[in-house]
Design a protein that fits this description.
It is built from 15 helices and 16 strands. The protein folds into 2 domains: about 300 residues, Zn peptidases (Aminopeptidase); about 160 residues, Glucose Oxidase, domain 1, CATH 3.50.30. The chain is of the alpha/beta class. The protein is about 35% helix and about 25% strand.
């Protein structure tokens, strides 16, 4: 097939294609499927979007542009400012309405150029372990910290060490469960080690914490991510680093042979607060423009990779969905507003600032894309019956790309503040099988994103927005 005929197959294929697309996002929540065939109007509106997506796809090119303009975009850094400028210029160039930058105060954390974890042999030999500082970790003294390693599998096991943990380096080595089809559930079952490992280590007097990377893949790529930065009294937690899964296996093996000492050197540091921005653009509603449907992702990304899946994909999904609606001549009844959120990774300040600034505005729904650019599998929404089942029915045309299921669930992290205000929310759920191969790692680059999967996600999101904004 040529590239064009391949896209035609994906975008306009028969509904039976959905049955052949098994994905991890389809099982545990028992998602609903349409109880009827698509209506003529639904089919026509989907077809209008699919024709534009097939003939003039732009999501992948936009992702290339974002990563070229701002491959490193930690909140409060020049890279984040470059991403915000890119977002503003892109929304303006596509002719969206009310394009603006809404300021957000963000925490500033700098990784630094020293990330070293060395196993110290009795003979003076040193063996490096692939490592990266966890986000918001304090640094070590210039000379580093030195301690004997104690391996644990849980925060509770670490806490139970008490005085035995004093002066030690705590090694959290509970892997993500590879048997779980839903890798987000596996992540949720292990990530407390990363988020609170340094806190518990400091409670027992440890000098540092090492955490097995949050991935089921065994490789040499450490995965960063946010952690609690301070103790209850405001003092810093123990310096903390993620080590690659292969390094974790190596360290575990060495510990089976006898005591192991490591030296950690991290030059990361907090630099107070700076300014960021949520970037906003709209497709004004045709009948009820005062009512808003929000769609978004987050502009910031960890600086280990380029943030292609997390969350460059969600950013371009959101922009491309609005562009497809506009290019197809579909102007929904309600205003559809794209929000490119600041500071999801290290503080959620963008989502909080947006909800506060717009709390009196009537929001009808919010939907987020923050699970990568893989093949779209389903949506989720926290509507009650009968609206939930009616929405599932309306997604029937998405069977052509294997995304006609609707599960119960809310929005992503950036929408939690809106949800607290009573706004109904949802999320685009792509295939998650390989998401954590790349999440927060140096492997999260453009080459890891499949062009057609990314474009199909934008098409699915555009149709979903058309349905909800016309409800």
């Amino acid at each position: 097939m040529t590239a064009l005929s391949s896209r035609t197959h994906y975008f306009l294929g028969a509904a039976s294609l959905a049955l052949a697309l098994a994905g991890c996002a389809a099982a545990p929540a028992g998602p609903a499927t349409p109880r009827r065939a698509a209506t003529a109007e639904e089919s026509a509106r989907y077809a209008a979007l699919a024709r534009v997506a097939q003939s003039d796809p732009k999501a992948y090119a936009m992702l290339e542009g974002l990563l070229r303009a701002a491959p490193r975009r930690l909140a409060g850094t020049p890279g984040a400012a470059a991403a915000e400028a890119w977002g503003f210029a892109t929304l303006q160039s596509l002719g969206f309405e009310a394009v603006r930058s809404e300021p957000v105060r963000v925490p500033v954390w700098i990784r630094g150029d020293v990330e070293e974890v060395m196993v110290l042999g009795a003979d003076g030999a040193m063996e490096p372990l692939r490592a990266c500082a966890l986000g918001l970790s304090p640094g070590t003294p210039v000379e580093g910290v030195l301690g004997e390693v104690i391996e644990v599998r849980s925060l509770e096991e670490a806490a139970s060490l008490g005085e035995r943990g004093r002066g030690k380096v705590i090694f959290y080595n509970r892997p993500m469960n590879p048997a779980l089809e839903d890798t987000f559930a596996a992540y949720g079952g292990a990530v407390d080690q990363r988020s609170r490992g340094g806190y518990v280590a400091k409670q027992i007097g440890a000098v540092g914490a090492l955490v097995r990377s949050m991935t089921t893949r065994v490789d040499d790529h450490p995965h960063t991510g946010a952690m609690r930065a301070t103790m209850d009294d405001g003092s810093p937690v123990a310096p903390s680093a993620a080590i690659s899964t292969r390094a974790a296996e190596r360290l575990h093996g060495l510990l089976q042979q006898g005591p192991v000492r490591v030296r950690m050197r991290l030059s990361c540091r907090a630099e107070g607060e700076g300014m960021g921005a949520n970037i906003v653009g709209e497709l004004r509603g045709s009948e009820r423009p005062q009512e808003v449907v929000v769609v978004g992702g987050h502009l910031d990304a960890w600086d280990t990779g380029d943030g292609a899946h997390d969350d460059g994909a969600g950013i371009v999904h959101s922009i491309e969905a609005l562009r497809l609606l506009k290019a197809a001549g579909l102007r929904p009844k309600r205003t559809v507003r794209a929000v490119l959120f600041a500071n999801e990774e290290s503080g959620l300040r963008g989502g909080q600032a947006y909800a506060e600034a717009h709390r009196t505005e009537p929001h009808f729904f919010g939907v987020e894309s923050d699970r990568g650019g893989f093949a779209p599998r389903r949506f989720q929404a926290n509507w009650a019956e009968p609206q939930f089942s009616e929405l599932a029915d309306a997604l029937a045309p998405l069977a052509a790309i294997g995304c006609a299921q609707l599960a119960r669930g809310g929005g992503g992290a950036d929408l939690t503040s809106l949800e607290r205000l009573g706004v109904s929310c949802g999320e685009l759920i792509p295939d998650c099988a390989h998401y954590f191969d790349y999440h927060h790692a140096e492997t999260d680059v453009l080459a890891a994103v499949d062009r057609d999967d990314l474009e199909r996600g934008a098409l699915a999101l555009a149709y979903f927005l058309d349905v909800v904004a016309n409800w």
